[in-house]
Amino acid sequence: MSATLPNAEPHAELDPRLAPPFPKAALPVLRNAQLRKNVAHATDVIQAKRAHLVEEKQDWQQLRAAAAAIRDHVLDHLGDYLEQFETRCTAAGGVVHWATDAAEARAIILRILREEQASEVIKIKTMTSAEIQLNPALEAAGIAASETDLAEIILQLGHEEPSHIVVPSLHLNRAQVREIFARRMDLPQLSDDPRALTAAARTWLRRKFLTVPTAISGANFLIAETGAVAVVESEGNGRMCLTLPRTLITLAGIEKVIPRFADLEVMLQVLARSATGERMNPYTSLWTGVTPGDGPQRFHVVLLDNGRSPILARPTERQTLRCIRCGACQNTCPVYRQTGGHAYGSVYGGPIGAILTPQLMHMEHAQSLPFASSLCGACYEVCPVRINIPEVLIELRAQVVDQQRRRQNRMFDPLYLGMRAASGILASARRFGAAQRLGRIALRPFTRSDGWIHSLPGLGARWTLTRDLRGMPNQSFREWWAQRQEKQP
Amino acid sequence: MNTPASSRTLILQRIREASRNAAPSAYPDLLRAYTHAGLLPAEDRIRLMAERLREYDADVVECAPAHLPAAIAAKLSASGRRRFVAPPGLPADWLTEGFDWLTDHALSIADIESCEGVVTAASAGVADSGTIVLHHTASEGRRILSLLPDWHLCVLHASQVVETLPEYFSRCTQPPTLVTWISGPSATADIEMTRIKGVHGPRFLHIVLVRDDDSDSSPAKPEQSLKVGPNDSR
Fold first, then answer.
1. A197 and B191: CB-CB below 8 Å?
2. List of chain A residues whose C-beta atoms are within 8 Å of the C-beta of residue B194
3. Mutual angle of helices A350-360 and A389-406, in 10-degree steps
4. Number of helices (H) and strands (E), helices first, in chain A?
5. Nearest Cβ partner of A42 from B128, B131, B192?
6. A304 touching B, CB under 8 A?
7. How confident is the model at residue B23 (pLDDT cuts 50, 70, 90)?
8. Is ipTM beyond 0.90?
9. How distant, in Å, are the alpha carbons of A51, A210, A271, A288, A377 from that of B177?
10. Residue B221, CA distances (Å) to A263, B133, B217 in order
């Protein structure tokens, strides 16, 4: 068995330009009882831990308000803070690159790797690299990329797709992980005890950490004041990648910047509690450019726009960019909890994905996602930076409907025709009254003696297949009122 | 800069155009109504620190300043390990006899990997989250020292312990260039959310809490500021 097993599969399933619409993608998942059980279990555990820690934190709402204020302030002055970050990071020995889109970011990273003559890289979990589909590009360039986060190793070895932004392998249980590891690491005797599985991953990666001279990371925070970068993690794989290699490339969305070092006093308090239900994650690393004698001596930061800057211009949607990728909205979402992440057709699933993905796609793809929500508001309630996700969902829904309205073939769209008809009827009391009378006559044959309609033919069956419909009353309120006025002149 | 000037200019231009109508907020006016200073008496603050560390499966012992070398020696002996790596600035009396010590004067990765444990100082402790903070000064060592060995003994003085994270940040009069915030041993919950101790970082974290505090004195002295790391001169 080869020592390097790069993920050769392109992430077509999670490419919003190619993925099927949410309702279609969700169907097979809803029939997958094992997956639903795994997702429900994992999200239940994180939610319970988070709820306990949030309750004990007396100033939780104040922390959320401050976190939202800091992130909003950054978005108001994003250009200035990015330039400040660039100046400070460069002064500390880092090299800052700017990428307008995914293709440019991939090209920059490949160019650096070619300059380094790298044949292999180790990676810290970064959803941004999945967003730009970096691994397939590395593979095509003949560079073996090894994921080092346990969840990412599971996905890479099992040719699976990420389904959650914090625990990307959350849809797999221990037996499935054991099967992948036993097969790909050639360990037929491996048990399914998470302890043994974790130990297998430790052994699998140890040599790579000690020998591969190039690493790729994401960033949780870029600090404008000092040019420092912070990465939040649990396992120590992050520290390994940030410390041992000769060269480090950090890929970060332009929105990841915060003004000052001390702002971490807010961000770190809300992030770990929201993400994994811990008071603090085991390891948070912060470094500033290059430190002689400690860690990588060549350091690059790639600042990625890829559809982010246009979001800033929209007053309702710009709050999307406050996101610090904690995944709390996914864990709490009644839709995500049924479907898991894959149905969203994007590396960003769940409520945040439902608003972020179509926007990153300039509203040209993933238009079904804003509708993948019951608008219950649970995501808003848990969001550590108070993104009003339902508000953004409604705004995006309106945009999608406007798009459809502009479409040429709208005259054949039953939804459009139905809405037009409803609009005409509801605009006039006379027409509404006539429609009620007509409906009463038309529905009478289907109304049972208990006053309910249990089944309807044709399109109406879509409703009655899963629920009953109240029969129309014999008299409408308006008719009753008119009758009453006649009696009492 | 390696990027064509156009991409940088284009992104900044897009951002500035998009933010044109944003109401400008001033940094000093940002609402920060959260808890800054802790309220616990000194004794409770130290007790909370130890309690939170233990919740992460870290081992905590307390000792008087005079007994520190003995406390370190006891922990090293109990570990059953012999070969330890030490940062160059570790106080000489912490390098207790009876063990093989490698002091880090540009040791190779292989040398450090060959050690069974590491002893370091710390820059601060945050009781609320059970976090120890390394600024990687000469007594805390390069980042790799507290990473490769499977066993980490960290000496934390009670006077370094604050109750809240904001208190730690207010002690940093100058932002440090390197920081590692450590909250318990390396861990993962990626398989069925079962917390497993010990993935790539040290599996065993031991804290010797030196009671250099006057137990009557109340909250940590805010005037005490922290060293900023190996590049103080920058």
1. yes
2. 174, 194
3. 40
4. 22, 12
5. B192
6. no
7. confident
8. yes
9. 34, 24, 22, 5, 40
10. 22, 17, 9
Instruction: Specify which residues B180 forms β-bridges with.
Output: A285, B134
Residue A383, both tokens: 């969001």
The token duo for B30 is: 């940002």
At residue B4, the pLDDT reads 58
* Positive or negative torsion for Cα A263, A266, A270, A273: positive
Amino acid at B48: L
- What pLDDT is recorded for position A12? 60
Long-range contacts for B13-18 (Cβ within 8 Å, ≥24 apart)? B14/A305, B14/A309, B14/A310, B15/A78, B15/A79, B15/A82, B15/A254, B15/A309, B15/A312, B16/A79, B17/A313, B18/A309, B18/A310, B18/A311, B18/A312, B18/A313
pLDDT tens digits, residue range A161-188?
A: 999 999 999 999 999 999 999 999 999 9
Q: Give the other-Cβ count within 10 Å of A410's Cβ.
A: 13
> Quick one: pLDDT at residue A489?
64
Mutate to test the interface with B, among A54, A62, A207, A291 (most CBs of B within 10 A): A291
Contact by Cβ (8 Å): B59, B117? no
Q: Judge whether residue A54 has pLDDT over 50.
A: yes
Q: How many CB atoms lie within 10 A of CB A261?
A: 22
Of residues B23 and A330, the one with the higher pLDDT is A330
Both tokens assigned to A75: 């978005």
Q: Supply A39's token pair.
A: 């997702």
Q: In order of start, what are the domains of chain B with their CATH numbers?
A: 42-210 (3.40.50.10420)
C-alpha dist (Å) from residue A49 to A57, A283, A328, A331: 13, 19, 11, 11
How many CB atoms are closer than 10 A to CB B191? 28
